[in-house]
Specification:
mainly beta; Immunoglobulin-like; three-stranded mixed beta sheet; 2 helices; 16 strands
């Protein structure tokens, strides 16, 4: 999707108009920066989808966003992407503190560290595609960090103690 960002951090995107039922399964959202990627700041918003005529949203959403991070110290906030069509940029620490009230796993495309947040202490299991547990961790003080750098490139399932399962891609 072609993207431009002004010096003030304002994003211009050719948004997609979605009508009817919307299903996303295993897709990668690729942002093609025509210009201004260095201008992205916390608070930049990308209005990617016009969701006014969407009747339902289903599927497991995007498994990855490229580029993986919008810039140094910044992360993608996808919490509004499939409800109002906006992809937001926030400081990495803002996601960590904001996610403490719900379970979350990020980044969805991981090279080194996988972060898991949950509102209470809980066990985290990482499965390979054969169903073997390849890593475990415990969420302490609302966050766990799992070093994924030694694992081969593949898709992994992350099960958090409360029963939620997330899919991540290891680069």
């Amino acid at each position: 999707m072609p993207v431009k960002v002004t010096a003030a951090g304002t994003a211009t995107v050719c948004k997609l108009v979605v009508k009817g039922a919307m299903t996303l399964n295993g897709a990668t959202l690729k942002l093609d920066f025509a210009s201004g990627q260095d201008n992205i700041i916390a608070g930049t918003s990308f209005y990617l989808f016009n969701m006014a005529n969407v009747t339902s949203v289903s599927g497991d959403g995007f498994v990855a966003i490229e580029p993986e991070v919008p810039g140094d110290g910044l992360v993608w906030d996808t919490s509004k992407l499939l409800t109002n069509g906006r992809l937001n940029v926030v400081e990495a620490s803002a996601i960590r503190s904001g996610e403490r009230t719900r379970t979350a796993v990020w980044p969805t495309t991981v090279e080194k560290e996988l972060h898991v947040t949950a509102p209470a202490q809980t066990e985290v299991l990482v499965y390979n595609m054969v169903g073997n547990v390849v890593a475990t961790a415990t969420v302490q003080d609302t966050e766990a960090v799992i070093n994924m750098s030694a694992y081969p490139s593949n898709i992994y399932l992350v099960k958090v103690g409360d029963g939620k399962v997330f899919r991540v891609v290891k680069k």
